[in-house]
């Protein structure tokens, strides 16, 4: 289960990073009302609707990317905190988690 959580976390992190790279944060040259910051002139209706679509597409993709990164890191953390101790677990991994548990709880050994 821990490996599955870690794998899902890594995939979400990759998707979030890809969304952020492709769509960046909402572009600063277009405001949320469809106006262009670079020009002071009133935009045409077609230009305003294109600017609005561009602004909101980037805003939604940025939020989705950040959410994917946060959830992905949370899954990775859960996979680390709750390791598997089943038959598929290797002795090295089990020993490492047992040593960490003993060190955290003051058990010598």
Distance between the amino and carboxyl termini: 28 Å
Please identify the structural class as seen in this structure.
Answer: mainly alpha
- Round the mean pLDDT to the nearest integer and report it: 77
Separate helix tally: 3
Order of helices and strands: HHH
Could you characterize what this model shows?
The protein is mainly alpha-helical and 109 residues long. The chain has helices at 2-23, 45-81, 91-105. It starts with a helix and ends with a helix.
What is the strand and helix layout of this fold?
Elements: H1 2-23, H2 45-81, H3 91-105
Helix pairs in contact: 1-2
Briefly characterize the structure:
This protein is mostly helical.
């Amino acid at each position: 289960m821990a490996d599955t959580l870690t794998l899902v976390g890594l995939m979400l992190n990759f998707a979030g990073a890809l969304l952020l790279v492709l769509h960046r944060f909402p572009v600063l040259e277009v405001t949320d009302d469809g106006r262009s910051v670079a020009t002071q002139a009133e935009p045409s209706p077609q230009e305003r609707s294109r600017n609005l679509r561009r602004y909101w597409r980037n805003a939604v993709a940025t939020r989705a990317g950040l959410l994917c990164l946060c959830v992905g890191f949370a899954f990775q953390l859960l996979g680390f905190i709750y390791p598997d101790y089943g038959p598929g677990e290797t002795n090295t991994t089990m020993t490492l988690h047992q040593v960490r548990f003993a060190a955290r709880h003051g058990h010598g050994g």
